[in-house]
Amino acid sequence: MVFKLALAALSVSLAAGSAVAQIKPEDAIKFRQSGYTFMAWNMTRIYANVNGTYNKEEVIKAANAIQAVANSGMGALFLPGTDKGTGWEPTRAKAEFWTEREKVGQVGGAFNKEANEMAKVAATGDAAAVKEQFGRLAKTCDNCHDSFKAKR
Amino acid sequence: MVFKLALAALSVSLAAGSAVAQIKPEDAIKFRQSGYTFMAWNMTRIYANVNGTYNKEEVIKAANAIQAVANSGMGALFLPGTDKGTGWEPTRAKAEFWTEREKVGQVGGAFNKEANEMAKVAATGDAAAVKEQFGRLAKTCDNCHDSFKAKR
Fold first, then answer.
1. Among A21, A24, A47, B32, which is least packed by CB within 10 angstroms?
2. Which residues in chain A (62-101) have CB-CB distances under 8 A to chain B?
3. Residue A71 in 3-state DSSP?
4. Alpha-carbon distances of B129 from A3, A113, B135, B149, rounded to whole Å
5. Cα B152 off chain centre by
6. Residue B128 class from Cβ within 10 Å (0-12 exposed, 13-18 middle, 19+ buried)?
7. In chain A, positions 19-58, which contact chain B (CB-CB < 8 Å)?
8. Beta strand residue intervals within B27-103, DSSP E
9. For B65-123, how does the pLDDT look when each residue is reduced to its tens digit (9 = 90+)?
10. Which residues of B touch A34 (CB under 8 A)?
11. Which domain does B97 fall in, by range?
12. Distance between CA A127 and CA A39 in Å, rounded?
């Protein structure tokens, strides 16, 4: 078996005897930017469904994707040394992300809670409830961005 | 509620009366590159676990993330007009992706099958079985890349 993608192209190496993949700072930034951007696509899909013709299956797929990314443990990608640097683009994480740990935990926890709830509500197919939950979830995205993501 | 991220920054607009978000070609390319790159991170995590110290919970998170991305319906991001263009970087999708639809369906279907199986196997916590399934899943990634993704 040749696993070319991650080990060659992304140059992730494995420390002997360690379960922790040694990720280059620029790859960590790229991975987290990818996770957030992938969630953004899925947010736009839910938004389009609750403001247009509702497709239960599409909303379930989108909500499950957001939930899985939210629960994936992306905090591990905010490694020391990744407060500056360029992944797909220069990181927009503010210095406060590394200094205000308690607040980061609060806004992150709120996001996870609402993402998990979004998946549950999506499964019911209740478009009105999905629209309400979408608002609550989007608010948690905004709360984090307002505090910890630099404006362009 | 202000949903700033996707609607402002990514400029996704909604056609009146349509459930289909009108995605700009460059955003569609960026979204799909994000999905694949996010999966790559999670593949490296599983690889690190089966070749180092095994952490059942981390493998479950990673496998669930891959599964949800695989099942999210990313085919919708290969819109007409996105065979060329730049998202995070110029697309590396080959022209064959749009002409060899049957083969795309086969390799995509194989990938989805193995991604779903990966999540099931991860849930058991059986490291040896996860290692085997990781090999099968990675093979489906490589198969698609060999046929449809241009080398750098």
1. A24
2. 62, 64-65, 67-69, 71-73, 77, 88-89
3. coil
4. 17, 31, 10, 29
5. 19
6. exposed
7. 19-21, 23, 27, 30-31, 33-35, 37-38, 40-45, 47-49, 51-55, 58
8. none
9. 999 999 999 999 999 999 999 999 999 999 999 999 999 999 999 999 999 999 999 99
10. 33-35, 37-38, 41
11. 25-148
12. 20
Indicate the SS3 state at residue B32: helix
Integer Cα distance of B130 and B143 in angstroms? 20
Give the whole-angstrom CA distance, residue A141 versus residue B151: 35
**Residues ≥6 apart with Cβ < 8 Å to A76:** none
Taking contacts as CB-CB distances below 8 angstroms, the residues of chain B near A89 are 88
How far, in Å, CA of A130 to CA of A138, rounded? 12
Q: Provide Rg for chain B, Cα atoms.
A: 17
CB count within 10 Å of CB B16 equals: 7
What residue type is assigned to position B112 of the chain?
Answer: N
> CATH number, domain at A103?
1.20.120.10
Are the beta carbons of B58 and A73 separated by less than 8 Å? yes
Domain count of the fold of chain A:
1
**Structure pTM?**
0.90
Q: Closest-CA residue in chain A for B89?
A: A88
Q: Is residue A4 part of a domain?
A: no
Tens of pLDDT, residues A56-106: 999 999 999 999 999 999 999 999 999 999 999 999 999 999 999 999 999
- Inside any domain, residue A101: yes
Whether B4 is in a domain gets the answer no
Strands of A19-87 (E only): list them. 21-22
For A34, which of B9, B37, B71 is closest by C-beta distance? B37
Residues in chain A closer than 8 A to B82 (CB atoms): none
B11 domain residue, yes or no: no
Set of chain B residues whose Cβ sits within 8 Å of the Cβ of A53:
17-19
